[in-house]
Amino acid sequence: QVQLADSGGGLVQPGGSLRLSCAASGRLSSNGVMGWFRQAPGKEREFVAVTRWNGASSNYADSAKGRFTISRDIARNTGFLQMNSLKPEDTAVYYCAVGARWVVGRMFLEREYDYWGQGTQVTVSS
Prior knowledge:
The chain is mainly beta. Helix content is about 0%, strand content about 45%. It has no helices and 11 strands.
């Protein structure tokens, strides 16, 4: 049983930064993955970033490359998404998720994840 608590969202101006956190109540497998998705108003949920829990691999959506960084603190069972140079189009509810394994070329798919956080609102506006 894994419960995820994502947090750290808020209101920021364009060009600003936020760091989102995802705290897991249970122990995460070294073979597993933690990902981030987001859902903007009126749009479907989309993939943002994913990391293997052992840190061997990370992938980013094109919209996140060069601006967002995914990381994790294994000892504290906590993952992070550092978001820099934020744009209004980044406005969305952000969700962290945990999956059992890394599957090459498939980690952008929601169905690869078994547990989800409640979501945290990120609003980028002047």
